[in-house]
Prior knowledge:
By secondary structure, the chain is of the alpha+beta class. Helix content is 16%, strand content 38%. It is globular, with a radius of gyration of 20 Å.
Amino acid sequence: MDPQHRDRIAFVRICSGHFVRGMNVRHVRTGMPLSLSRSVQFMAQERTVVDEAYSGDIVGLWDPGILRIGDSLCEGAPVEFEGIPRFSPEHFVRVRLDDPMKRKQLKKGLDQLSEKGAVQLFFDRRRLERDPILGAVGVLQFEVIEHRLQSEYGVRVRFDRLPYRFARWLEGPDLDQDKLELPGRQSCVTDVEGRPLVLFETEWLMRRAEEENRSVRFISAVQPGRSSRAAA
């Protein structure tokens, strides 16, 4: 709303009970206490402070940087809902930074935009956070990210298209990521939560890897913030 002052607002639905501004709750995923002292509703360009809300209402909460899609907040015993799964992207690009002095701004921008679900962020096992990889369902998402990085974070980037079309998270006691590497055709990377996955150029390569690694689970969707498991 104000380009000179960018903050983070998380929209929360009240599932049960009574919300009161200033109440203390527990962030279930991390176990951290959280004070909900800054609550708002939006009407066009105007913000209105919300003092109370009830079941079914949606409230905007100031986010100190810990809230993610699918998180739950509660006062009493922990209550956790099934999150929105992350599905396998179909398009991939490698991010090239024009100005190496703005690597910190790039990291901040990609971290925040990926948390909002705009794209999925992956890292090469050897390059780590240098030249990260973005995954998306549609190529238009890359144009949106490029524009937002430049307009909101002051970072100019270039995207190198990668040949991969399929991604599968990996899980299993006999996982050997080096065995799954095939330069230019399939590559092992990690997501922002450190979970391993492999990118494939073709479906045939993916099926062959599954046949040759029977003890490894190849998972097409995972729950954010949790250990890898099939989302159905």
